[in-house]
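Example 3.2
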Amino acid sequence: MSAFKAIAAMSLNRVIGKGLEIPWHIPEDFKWFKETTMGQVLVMGRRTFDSIGRALPGRETMVLTRGNFIHPEVTVIQSLDEVTPLLEGRTAFVAGGAQIYEQALPFCSDLFLTIVQREVEGDVFFPAFEDNFEE
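Structure, written as tokens:
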């Protein structure tokens, strides 16, 4: 699974979400996310997809879920093992949420992490990664 990279933004207290929302708005980070992932594959969980509400243009979206889920704009998968055969030379960017990051981080070659320089309230947290990556 070496074609995996993780991409995320977290606050100083590891928050990545509050409900189905990102608890900050940083246009420069959204722009960087778009530029970095354009033309690649995004892998995300069902709740992350629901929070976005649609597939992002210019990228194939794969939604990892255990439940019955159908959406005309995405490829639904039930395991990370299903991703690699579908990549066709592209990179899979793991884009949330917390459970998906926890499953995928051990298989990611890189972690692109924006640290939002404040503590925020939230109920979704980025998992421990410090032992898996170097700056």
